[in-house]
Amino acid sequence: MAAFWDSFQAKVTAALICAMLLVVGISDLIIHQFSLNAQFQQLREELKVVARTAAVAIDVDALMQVPLRKDGALTPSYLSISDKINRIRKDNPGIAYVYVLTKTDRPGIWQFIVDADPVQKRNMGITSYPGDKYDTTRFPEMLRGWDSATADKKFGRDEWGVMISGYAPIRDKSGKTVAVLGVDMLAADVYATQMAVHGRAILILFLGIILSIMLGMLLSRRITEPVESLTEGIRRVSRGELTYKVKVRGRDEIAELAMDFNKMAQELLDARKKSSEYFYGVIQSMVRIVEAKDPYTGGHSERVAEYAVKIARRMGFQPDDLEMLRQVAVLHDIGKLGIQDAILNKSDKLTQEEWDLMRSHSVTGEDILKPVLLDVQMLAIVRGHHERYDGSGYPDGLSKDEINIFAQILTVADSYDAMTSSRAYRKVSLRPEDAVAELHKHKGSQFSPRVVDIFCKILQEENN
Known about the structure:
By secondary structure, this protein is an alpha+beta fold. It has helices spanning 2-5, 8-57, 60-64, 76-91, 140-144, 187-238, 253-293, 300-314, 319-331, 341-344, 352-359, 361-369, 376-384, 405-419, 432-442, 449-463; strands spanning 97-103, 109-115, 133-135, 150-151, 156-158, 161-171, 177-186. Strands 1, 2, 3, 4, 5, 6 and 7 form a 7-stranded antiparallel β-sheet that branches. Strand 5 and strand 6 form a beta hairpin. Helix 8 (300-314) packs antiparallel against helix 9. The longest helix has 52 residues, at 187-238.
């Protein structure tokens, strides 16, 4: 887990998610504020419309007849206007108070004419009977309401509570303003409406966070995938897999870098092939030197290579594998360069020391080829071509599938050619049918049963 958080992908993912969350947060805040502002402006317009409509509905003559004293609330004129105001309030459920005020001789101090319920705050000794004074200097929009319909631009607080109000002038027949009608909406009602906006904003923010995380992970993957492909390509090529190709779609800088990387790998592969061909030619010459030292093994390596390729082809291996096997089969006895001619050509039985030296040629061959052949499998074939299927071979005592399959093939091909060719220790070679019998005799112990059966079938087909 720690390795992931230290990775480039984790850092890109975190950066993208943080950037997206910042954008989402700022956008949500702006939208939220815009929504609240738009809602508030809409509320102001609605309050102005209600106030304007109610002001037009007021009977100015009846209003002017209301005595501006407490018992004025009992007069028919007051009651008729109060009844009309109550109907307006019922028709607009969000409205808490509806009232009518007029100016006094004192600047900013107005007095009530009509209120639908003049004793709503009776427990606090606050009333709005006709003639009760009210300080309007706290509410600039109320003062402007004497001239035209308007509404508070922010919440206001007075003895009646926290609210937002709309105002409209009441004019007589001559167009002169005689009073102002006010409608109040309590902050609690507005707050409930705004909470719905808050809820939507929180929901949008939550969805935005989820979307940001998903997009961040997706985009980071799209960004880091090409980098990971290049990293994998570098790792593969550093291990010698020069045929590996980095696959990056697109036309951006990373895709161009991938194309250049593939081109570089191909050039390295071409250079390696040229070098391998050169060294292979040199080593072939060395093999011929080995065979020249032992006159009984002339052409042995080429025949073994031919047999081995036939077996591998019948087993379904690809052309590249067949070519690799052909090359390594030609080189498999290169280790005999380190063995004295007297031992190679000795017709008598070898001593234990001489036999140990002879058995070392597979390891010596691997050591000779290791600086030249970078292919691990080719080296394994050279080293393992004297391993036995039952585990009694050398140099590592491998058995069955532990032995490289191409080494198993080479062992059968090598043994058949050795049996059908003259040797220093055996002047007369075996007939092919006798060699085949020997292969069958020792399959499962020295040889792979599958390889023996396939090779014998090939020989049978060629002799028919």
